[in-house]
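ARCHIVE RECORD
Type: protein–small molecule complex
Small molecule: 8-OXO-2'-deoxyguanosine-5'-triphosphate
Source of inputs: curated submission
Record status: active
Notes field left blank by submitter.
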Amino acid sequence: MTDRQVVVGVAVVDAGRVLAALRPGPDGGWEFPGGKVEPGETDRDAAVRELDEELGLRVTVGASLGLDQPIGDKYVLRVYLAELMSGTPVLREHTETRWVSVARLSELDWLPADRPFVPLLRATLRGGG
Ligand SMILES: Nc1nc2c([nH]c(=O)n2[C@H]2C[C@H](O)[C@@H](COP(=O)(O)OP(=O)(O)OP(=O)(O)O)O2)c(=O)[nH]1
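STRUCTURE (tokenized, with ligand):
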């Protein structure tokens, strides 16, 4: 597992809702926006950079949800909670974004690697949101 590159996904939370983003294309689906952690970057650096590049959002990154989910044999997906500081989503790479209540998260057609994070997110946010 250690030689796999980390893909950070960011669960941006605002007013008790979570931002989901629709990746286009044949392998598309709903995902947590983010991307690959580049050499020399921390996961949190990558999360902040990707959210700015992809959606024009400023976020403060918090805890990991605590799971490394394999994507194929080269990557693992690691999802972090984040708080929205400023911005409204600008669609640069995604075709749609949605603010989804915790109760409705499981209704979206998430990418396969993202699915295990949905119950973790619900359990984490249920108390606080
Ligand atoms: N960002 C993100 N990628 C995900 C998620 N779930 C999932 O399977 N993936 C996959 C899709 C891509 O194959 C890969 C991440 O690639 P990416 O295109 O977001 O990475 P990147 O922005 O660094 O792009 P690039 O420079 O390599 O083109 O992980 C997710 O929730 N968020």
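CURATOR ANNOTATION: Residues 43-55 form the longest helix (13 residues).
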